[in-house]
Amino acid sequence: MKQGKDREFDKMDRRAFCKKSFAVGAAIYGASFFGWTTNLAAQDTSAFIPDLVAVKNGEPDVLFDKAIEAMGGMSKFVQKGQKVLVKPNIGWNSTPETGANTNPLLVKRIVEHCVNAGAKKVYVFDHAVDYSVQTYETSGIAEAAKAGGATVVPAHEEKYYHKVAVPGSQVLKELQVHEMLLESDVFINVPVLKHHMASDITIAMKNLMGVVWDRGFYHNNGLDQCIAEFCLYRKPDLNVVDAYLVMMARGPKWGGPEDRSLKKTLLISQDIVAIDAAAAKIFGVEPEKIPHIKLGHEKQVGNMNLEGRNIKRIPL
Question: In whole angstroms, what is the distance from residue 197 CA to residue 176 CA?
Fold first, then answer.
C-alpha cells in the first residue's frame, strides 16, 4: 500500500481548538434553512424518527447531542450488548483545524452516546491514505475516541480485511472489507463534508471507502460507480455529517485558511443518499450534479429528493 508523504503542520492546543470558534467567516444561508425547502418544515416529528435532522450554530459535541435527541436518542440505534463501529474520516496526517478529518470532539461524543446506550464494544478506525499511525494521532481522533470509551483498531495491513460479495453490483462485484465491519452489529458513519478533487465533494457515501482495502480499484474502475455500489453490500445504520468546518477548495487535504468555511452545522440521517444530498446543498452544489449521489438514488440506495421529506431543523 502506498503511503502519503508526511507534512509539517503548526502545533496547537487541540482542546482549545475544539472549544473556540475559528476566525473565518460563517456561510450566509438563505431564508430556507441550509438552502433547501420542505413541505413538512413545521411538522411535529416527536412521534417518529425524522428522515433527517439538521442542527446549526453550536460546537460539535452540542450539535450531536441535539441531533441524536431529535432522532429519539442513541438507544434507538444501539442496544445493550451490541458491538458498534464508528467510522470517521481519519485519512490525512492533518491537525483538526484544517478540516481534513472528522472533528475529534464529535467522534468522542458519538462514542460516549454509544457507551451510555449499553454498547459492549465501540470500535473506531479508518484506512488512512497517509501513514495511519501518525494520522490517528495528528488528527486528534485516537485520543478523543479512547477518552470516550472506544477501542481504536489498526487498518493499515491487508490481514485485517476479508473478501465479501456485493449483490446486484455491475462493477464492484467483490471486495475486501475490514473485519470490524463484519463483526459489528451497528455501523455509524461519521464523514466530514469537504471538497474532493476526484469526486467534487466527499461526504457519507465516499467515506465508506475507508473500510475497503483496495481503494485503487475504485479509482481505476469508475470511482462514482464503485462509491454507489458499495452501499449495495452494506449501508450504515446511522450517518452523521460533520459540517462544522468545511474545506471548500483544494480538498481532500490541501486547503488553506482561505479555503475553509465555518458553518457550525451537523446533519444526521439513516438515509445515506438523503444526507449526502442535504450536505451537497450546504456546500452549494445541487445533488444531481454529483454523480455518485445520483447513482445512489438510481440504485435505490436512498432518496436524494428532499422536498416533502420529514426534515427537522434545529437552530441553536
Answer: 25
Grid cell for residue 37: 425547502
Residue 6 has which C-alpha cell?
Answer: 508526511
3-class DSSP state of 71: coil
Return the beta strands (E) in 93-153 as ranges: 121-124, 151-152
Residue 57's region, left for phi above 0, alpha for psi from -120 to 50, else beta, is left
Query: CA 95 to CA 4: how far, in whole Å?
Result: 15
Report, as ranges of residue numbers, the positions in the chain whose pLDDT lies below 50.
Answer: 1-32, 37-46
d(CA 51, CA 311): 6
Query: How many CB atoms sit inside 10 A of residue 200's CB?
Result: 18
Please state, in angstroms and rounded to a whole number, the distance separating the CA atoms of residues 105 and 209.
22
Cβ–Cβ < 8 Å for 224, 292: yes
CA distance 52 to 9: 36
State the Cα–Cα distance between residues 295 and 302, nearest whole angstrom. 10
Cell of 85: 463501529
Q: How many CB atoms sit inside 10 A of residue 241's CB?
A: 29
Mean pLDDT for all residues in the chain: 88
Determine the Cα–Cα distance for residues 127 and 143; give it in Å rounded to an integer.
17
Count of residues for the chain? Answer: 316
Q: How far apart are alpha carbons 195 and 61 in whole angstroms?
A: 23
* pLDDT tens digits along 26-69: 333 333 455 554 443 444 444 589 999 999 999 999 999 999 99
**Which three cell numbers mark 214?**
483496495
Burial 175-190 (b: 16+ CB within 10 A, else e): bbbbbbbeebebbbbb
Please, what are the domains in the chain?
53-315 (3.40.50.11440)
Closest CA relative to residue 273, chosen from 286, 253, 292, 247: 292
CB of 236 within 8 A of CB of 186? Answer: no
